[in-house]
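Comment thread on ticket #2218

A.B. wrote:
> Attaching the input chain for the structure job we discussed in standup.
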Amino acid sequence: MHTFALNHATTLLLPPTATMRSHACLVLAVVVLAVYCMSTEKPSMLFDVIIYRVSKFPLIKPYLSHELTTNAYKAVKCPAPSDILVPMELGSSHVSRVTEYLYLGDVCAAHSLATMRRHGITTIVNMCLNCPDALDTLIETKRFGIRDAVDEDLTRVLEPAIQYIEGKIRAGGRVFLHCKAGVSRSGAIAVGYIMYKNQWSYAQALSYVQSVRAVVQPNEGFVKTLQKHS
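C.D. wrote:
> Ran it. Output below, let me know if you need it in another format.
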């Protein structure tokens, strides 16, 4: 009797054919993701991610409308290490303290509510053009989107970003500044802010920012702009 019940249960849980097992796994994955989506503070983004992920499977795609998959693709397709909420707290490789009130890092940290809360972040400054602002309904967010390209005009955003950051800090806030990887775009703004705040040369400010986040390296075009402001 026990053997019969065990075999029957096994048949239900593990369908006999590979195709049926694939269908079962996909359905189970979607259900698990949907439950997780409903339990998070950013359900719309995670719903888009679910649609985007499952649309990659040939067996599922025909059942999804073009509009649904297109909207999901636009919502989550981002040239960044992470395109969804990060459910865990991240370490120093993702977020670095520049001053008591200014932190610098990558888009993964910007998508981690636990990380932002641990550092007491009240404002997120996004230097990316296309990376989504995953926490914008929970934390004040400002975008100064630019390309990481040598011909990009950094002067267009340099002073406005510095003044915006300074204003938030003077108001008693803590700012998290980021781009895709926390290297070039947000790194350039962090260097510019330190130049402004301490009246330092570009070389002094770069050396200091690199001492707290070693990967910082503005591209050649940004360097020329910052050197002119020395």
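A.B. wrote:
> Thanks. Noting for the ticket: Residues 1-15, 37-43, 73-84 have pLDDT under 50 and may be disordered.
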